[in-house]
Amino acid sequence: MKVLLFNGSPERANGCTYLALAEIAKTLEADGIGTETLSVGSQPVWDCIGCNHCQSAGLCVFEEDVVNTWIKKAREADGFVFGSPVYFAHPSGHLLSVMDRMFMAGRDAFAHKSAAAVVTARRAGTTASLDAIQKHFTDAEMPIVSSTYWNMVFGPAPELVDRDQEGLQTMRNLARNMAWMLQCIQLGKEHGVTPPVAETAHWTNFNR
């Protein structure tokens, strides 16, 4: 089993968000779960333009950034953690643009797989940012992994995140819950328990 951890910080590849994800990765690996951490980086990222090319191709029409590579990796993964710093009480624009396109073009890569959101902040905006990220999961039929507190660490600099012992403990408990959920899903598959098949999408038009 393998978990992909996405670092949505375009600023610091080894900053606060990285430290939170690293604590999760270390704990997952101690429980026998493989991990890979991917960074969104600081290069420009396309936003979704609603062209619907991906609905037939299974990949995004824009090939210049990480989206299609990450979709392909996601199809081989069992679980996901999306991490982001908090900017103006929301996740990084880079991460949201990437997630919008990944979940539009590669929904099949995420459906019925475990997911968690993690955020880092100096002070406020954390719960709103978690909510924004987790909306992608609930639209894609993904079970959400929780912890013993909301999945956040505090500190404007890495050395201060290291001092947030409750936050780091929350990351470790999150990782253990993720490992447990992945193992339960795997055991279910081995005993013939398969994911449900959703009804065909029906869009109700309220503008009548």
From TrEMBL:
It comes from the Bacteria. This is Cd1. Keywords: Flavoprotein, FMN. Coiled coil: none annotated. Residues 1-153 form the NADPH-dependent FMN reductase-like domain. Pfam families: FMN_red. One of its GO terms (molecular function) is oxidoreductase activity. Signal peptide: none annotated. InterPro entries: Flavoprotein-like_sf (IPR029039), FMN_Rdtase-like_dom (IPR005025), ISF_SsuE-like (IPR051796).
